[in-house]
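Deliverable D5.2: sample structural annotation.
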Amino acid sequence: MKPINLSDKLAQFDEHWSPRVIADFNGNDVMVVKFQGEFPFHYHPDTDDFFMVLEGQIQLDVEDKTLTLNPGELFVVPKGVNHRPRAEKEAKVLLIEPSGTPNTGDPKTASPKPRI
């Protein structure tokens, strides 16, 4: 049991759209990820999707509207809602999802989630 430094964890990788698990929380993966460019539209049929911006700015295209999130802001996409995160410049984000949830909503196209 020790504190987790988010900056230290984010400094361990450079890839975009490749979440890293940094902690477990009641059956959920707590992850850090770097966004740049566009992620494909997708949805999670059985789980909500938690996004919190640590650095930078992201846009979340959520069905027919676009939300802009700045550092310190979060948004929870309800289960079953089609969405796409994107970022013009690199952004650093905290994600929380139930363990084993594919980041694309489909295990065939999902990125691995290594633990750091």
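Annotation notes: The radius of gyration is 13 Å. The chain has one helix and seven strands.
The annotation will be released with the project's public dataset once the embargo ends.
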